[in-house]
């Protein structure tokens, strides 16, 4: 990984600040020992350990394109355009989890029913739905639909669990995404081992994804490809390791059949005391190379982000630099959150050879007597996008990334402001309300275009058992 001069400067600033505020946060080495307790030895039983609950989420989004850009939809068999798009969906999850049976090998199960009710069913408003509202082949909203979002069996020995079936999974490469009315999930097998005090292992094989806004399972596709390429399966494995009390690291690799091999390293380091001044440094790095039939074309991509966050009591200020070294997008799997980069916002700032910088400010009102209330504002800028050297050679179509070669010196900016509130007590405890407003402006051939969006999301948890 080759760091730019700006990234090196940021690292230098990090070192200086670390020296000034290294008194409070412990830098002690954490020895690797066997876990002190066995989760399976404390199993309550299949029935006694069961739970039934879930969440219901009201998800509203209003978008407006500008600078002459328009959404396209069909009405009475004719293509029409409009600058506005609105999606409003109520998503509900009912989740049942049994306890683990007692004994050397514990057995449990998890089943979750997902249901969506579309509150705005206007064809003109939803514009075909995309990944926000489920629509039929004519572009009409599917007013109400349900599916099994989770359905799996779990087997546990000591602190190691094997999960088979439809499930959630979280790593820097394969991660459930939950930024719509309902989340995604994955079909396959996964193992999670926490036999050591500061070292855990994860591995998985998935051959299908359950998308956020679809009823059926799908093969894996890439987020930025043209949608014609599909991967039969994905293997992934990795470790999470905390060598010091102040330092957490993660390393994962994944083989996406006939797409790419991808490797991820992440590290977070904390110094100081937030009541005085604390520094959080984050590094995320991805290496992606083509694999097998090379359905996504030739890929040799190094992408990283470096973030420095300063916190003083209620206030936080974060600076993030991100760089893509490759003639193609930094790409990841569609319907996953497998992009742990600091500047992944409404835009991912992941264009070929793109560099980007973000400044963000956060305010936690708990310090002023209003726990649960937070505000944030940010500004991000990307520049130097250059896809003119992309050669394509994708197996299904010559160019897996449509329009990438027209990106020559493209740039874009994104501004956002948001607020959230989590109810602290009472019948609605842990209910969260979040409102955000984002503006994204781009040069002619940048992929994300010119758009403004207001989003209001209310999530209410509930327990039955």
In a few lines, what is going on in this structure?
By secondary structure, the protein is mainly beta. It has helices at 5-20, 123-126, and strands at 51-65, 71-75, 78-82, 84-97, 105-118, 144-157, 160-167, 185-193, 199-210, 234-244, 247-256, 260-273, 277-290, 300-312, 315-325, 355-364, 373-386, 408-422, 432-442, 451-463.
Model description:
The chain has a single domain (5-26, 49-463), classed as Porin, CATH 2.40.160. It contains two helices and 20 strands. The protein has helices spanning 5-20, 123-126; strands spanning 51-65, 71-75, 78-82, 84-97, 105-118, 144-157, 160-167, 185-193, 199-210, 234-244, 247-256, 260-273, 277-290, 300-312, 315-325, 355-364, 373-386, 408-422, 432-442, 451-463. The strands form two sheets. It has an 18-stranded antiparallel beta barrel.
Keywords:
465 residues, mainly beta, Porin, two-stranded antiparallel sheet, 4% helix, globular, hydrolase, EC 3.4.21.-, OM_porin_bac, porin activity, transport
Give the topology string: H per helix, E per strand.
HEEEEEHEEEEEEEEEEEEEEE
* CATH topology (level 3) name: Porin
What ranges have pLDDT less than 50 throughout 5 or more consecutive residues?
Answer: 5-22
Overall shape: it is: globular
The tally of helices reads: 2
Q: How many distinct domains?
A: 1
- CATH architecture field: Beta Barrel
CATH superfamily: Porin
Largest sheet: 18 strands, antiparallel, barrel
Please state the structural category: mainly beta
**For the record, what CATH class applies?**
Mainly Beta
From the N-terminal CA to the C-terminal CA, the straight-line distance is: 50 Å
- DSSP E strands, number: 20
- Cα-atom radius of gyration: 23 Å
Average pLDDT score: 93
- Classify the beta-strand content into a percent band: over 45%
Helix content: under 10%
Keywords: Hydrolase, Signal, Transport
EC number: 3.4.21.-
GO molecular function: hydrolase activity; porin activity
Family: Belongs to the outer membrane porin (Opr) (TC 1.B.25) family.
């Amino acid at each position: 990984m080759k760091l730019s001069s700006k990234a090196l400067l940021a690292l230098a600033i990090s070192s200086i600040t670390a020296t000034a505020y290294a008194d409070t946060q412990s830098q002690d080495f954490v020895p690797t020992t066997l876990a002190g307790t066995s989760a399976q030895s404390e199993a309550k039983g299949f029935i006694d350990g069961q739970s039934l609950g879930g969440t219901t989420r009201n998800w509203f989004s209003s978008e407006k394109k500008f600078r002459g850009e328009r959404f396209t939809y069909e009405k009475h068999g004719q293509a029409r355009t409009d600058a506005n798009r609105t999606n409003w969906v109520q998503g509900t999850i009912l989740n049942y989890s049994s306890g683990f049976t007692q004994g050397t090998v514990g057995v449990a199960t998890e089943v979750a029913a997902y249901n969506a009710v579309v509150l705005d069913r206007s064809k003109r408003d939803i514009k075909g739905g995309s990944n926000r509202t489920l629509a039929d082949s004519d572009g009409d909203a599917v007013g109400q639909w349900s599916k099994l979002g989770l359905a799996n069996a779990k087997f546990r020995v000591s602190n190691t669990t094997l999960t088979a079936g439809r499930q959630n999974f979280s790593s820097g490469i394969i991660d459930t995404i939950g930024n719509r009315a309902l989340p995604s999930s994955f079909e396959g097998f996964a193992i999670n081992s926490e036999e050591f005090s500061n070292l855990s292992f994860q591995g998985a094989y998935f051959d299908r994804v359950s998308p956020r806004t679809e009823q059926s399972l799908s093969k894996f596709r890439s987020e930025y490809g043209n949608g014609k390429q599909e991967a039969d399966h994905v293997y992934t494995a990795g470790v999470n390791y905390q060598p010091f009390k102040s330092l957490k690291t993660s390393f994962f690799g994944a083989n996406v059949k006939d797409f790419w091999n991808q490797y991820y390293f992440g590290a977070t380091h904390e110094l100081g005391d937030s009541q005085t001044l604390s520094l959080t440094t984050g590094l995320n790095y991805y290496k992606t190379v083509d694999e097998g039939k090379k359905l996504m074309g030739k890929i040799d991509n190094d992408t990283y982000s470096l973030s420095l966050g300063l916190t003083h009591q209620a206030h936080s200020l974060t600076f993030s630099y991100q760089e893509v070294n490759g003639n193609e997008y930094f790409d990841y799997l569609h319907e996953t959150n497998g992009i742990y980069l600091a500047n992944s916002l409404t835009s991912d700032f992941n264009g070929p050879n793109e560099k980007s910088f973000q400044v963000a400010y956060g305010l936690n009102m708990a310090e002023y007597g209003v726990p649960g209330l937070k505000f944030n504002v940010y500004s991000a800028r990307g520049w130097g996008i250059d896809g003119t050297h992309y050669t394509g050679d994708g197996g299904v179509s010559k160019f897996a990334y449509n329009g990438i070669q027209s990106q020559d010196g493209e740039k874009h900016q994104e501004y956002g402001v948001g607020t959230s509130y989590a109810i602290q007590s009472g019948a609605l405890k842990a209910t969260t309300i979040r409102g955000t407003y984002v503006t994204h402006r781009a040069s002619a051939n940048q992929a994300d275009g010119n758009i403004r969006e207001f989003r209001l999301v209310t999530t209410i948890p509930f327990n039955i058992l």
